[in-house]
């Protein structure tokens, strides 16, 4: 049913490493089956490949010791944050040790003057923002799930407000990481910009645990904006909505969020939460800035939307009403699953140049209809990124094969538009064949770097590319 | 006098490669001494190390052929844009072939809807902006010199408006590069964001020609803002100016430029252009946005500056007056040299967390006084980056030694503040020892990547790190 890689298990090495780990870490090593399965958890269609043990380090030194033991016996090491990744990143195709960083969850420094902080990898996005609130600061990247910042760094996460604040690549200043030989590096200083050699920070961001285990992260922070305004309006077509978005971006309106829900997604949300939104493509927006600036942004947006036949324009500034206005977006995932109770959702993640976005979304809708699937769409349209949630019966092999075909078909369509098969979910196991289609020989360069930094292929093997 | 590395020359290989290159490229290969020396040109104190020949490719295929020939004979290949880099990047410490991309200067695509363009590496910053102007677009990175965009990409350039628009790292979407074996890769699609494997784009940006020769670049573009306002005011101290900057950034005022001139720099500008600015620290600013937003930004700035004892606040919106207001900044380099006619300027490039900036600038001023140098300071203070221009007599060995000591002292001071020895000029040859002090074991990782991608060390050898 699934297309996970299976790697040869180094049984003797695994047994030996587990012995040493248990001796050194005692209670902090677990081989309980349920815990192992939870740590091989994956939220796509990929088969669970549980690790042989889960270890809970508390310090960088612990991580170093774990990696050194595993390196000695050539045993796979798979870093684990909260397990919310979508492409089988935490699976253990050759067995090995899952390194769960949830006990490394301290906010080490908040430097308000410099708008940065230093955290351990197990700190979650919501925990960090709770910690920062009193100081009038926030960390903007929001992938939806309450992921760990270590995991978000490792997968190069982004989400709804990347259109204004960028992705993890733009918001990580420096990383401390344990390498395959157990040594520790820091990738950069705390300077806001640097030309000091190769950009190892951005090489580690999105490397999915295959080059090192992240043990500390220096993040950029933002001041909480003086004013936040939310807006919503409906469009006669996906194309009209996308044309609006394109113009908004071209005019340089600094929208903080601009999200598309297609007709089916709106319908799902209406049914789920008893809303009465017009069942046509919907844009939801958020503007951040000074009081005057958010008003100006909202007015400029409204004028552009009008030209493209928008209707039902609403705007609000209070927190409570903002949440109500955005409810459809917050509910989107559960509302979608409700369209087919018991079904499992498989999310695509293509991202294309914004000029091709409407064409790509409409083609996806048509293909979904042709295949007989139910698959609502939400999109981070300011970035050209959208997710089709294909609702499948996981037990039905024919359906699963068709769903896989659809994922491949859409990935290739996006690649043909000079886009990518993954805007924010990463490659993991699920997107490996499409990465090669997308970047060809560049994948050999990635493999060469991987080999240079991890010659025994112990760091999260079987992910991103074959080595 | 200088501290350039000298590498062993592969005389037989160089002779053989030049023979084949001349046969294949004819007139496009030159061994004229003046041209060779110009291509080993460096604008710091580093000795000129001329290449053995200069080749002018016209296409990616030409670059591939040149690299393949050089690879066959293990001869160094040094990419060359306009030669405006500052740390000996284009020197040829082991001889070899300079690849001058000035004939690869076509703007291949401008995609206004997607706010991106595809260019060849020899296109200069000013040429690109001239090309874009009619479409209401511009490319924001401005390192001062009219550098080639290939060179700006290779060195990870930035400049005065990085505080708003970021550096080259933030503005390059994808790169086509010829690798050490002559193969070509593209690092990414044209999607605005991507999680497709290791971030080879950002690995190439700032790799200073040591990992590949850049043959095409996809750049992010910006819409020309509706309104631009310039402002200027004087401060009682460097600390007062830096406190102002810190608050401006914390408040999230999206300043497009915020530049510091220290008292000596202001004095130099007064003398050079007959201005009558108060000879105390000066901030120059530029605000980009809508008409209403630039007024609001300027007012907010003024209120903050007032709290820190600013005086002589002026603001203007017309292009001509903006240029007049900024004249001191535009003249800064030549005005500085005028302080000591005949002298050579050696520029430092440290960048520190903004909370340490005032302390770092004042310490630099005090050290300069102690050493008896004349050395005005300009700073991209929104980023914590500043340049001390030490005016030296290049023929005076004692002075040169002292200047080198100063560069080292300041680099180490910045590193001690968790900053970097180079905010935007790169490592080249000049900063190699400080890179190790700054990042320690991470430099071994850089060397491992270099070895994996260029096992014979033919791509710009002797730069960034010893391999």
Layout of helices and strands, plus pairs?
2 copies of one chain form a homodimer.
Chain A: H1 11-25, E1 29-30, H2 33-39, E2 53-55, H3 60-72, E3 77-80, E4 97-100, E5 107-111, E6 116-119, H4 125-133, E7 137-138, H5 149-155, H6 162-165, H7 168-171, E8 172-178, E9 184-186, H8 200-204, E10 213-220, E11 222-223, E12 227-234, H9 238-250, E13 257-261, H10 263-273, E14 282-289, H11 291-307, E15 311-316, H12 319-325, H13 327-338, E16 344-347, H14 357-371, E17 377-380, E18 385-392, H15 397-416, H16 432-439, H17 442-453
Parallel strand pairs in A: 2-4, 3-4
Antiparallel strand pairs in A: 1-2, 5-6, 6-10, 7-11, 8-9, 8-10, 12-14, 12-15, 13-14, 13-17, 16-18, 17-18
Helix pairs in contact in A: 1-3, 9-11, 9-14, 10-13, 14-15
How would you characterize the overall build of this protein?
The structure is a homodimer of 467-residue chains. The first copy, chain A, has 467 residues and is of the alpha+beta class. Chain A folds into three domains: 11-102, 2-Layer Sandwich (Uridine Diphospho-n-acetylenolpyruvylglucosamine Reductase, domain 2), CATH 3.30.43.10; 103-223, Uridine Diphospho-n-acetylenolpyruvylglucosamine Reductase, domain 3, CATH 3.30.465.10; 227-416, Vanillyl-alcohol Oxidase, Chain A, domain 3. The first copy, chain A, contains 17 helices and 18 strands. A seven-stranded antiparallel β-sheet of chain A has the order 15-12-14-13-17-18-16, with helices on both faces. In chain A, a hairpin with a 4-residue loop joins strand 5 (107-111) and strand 6 (116-119). The radius of gyration of chain A is 22 Å and the shape is globular. The mean pLDDT of chain A is 96. At the A-B interface, strand 9, helix 8, strand 11, helix 9 and helix 11 of A face strand 9, helix 8, strand 11, helix 9 and helix 11 of B.
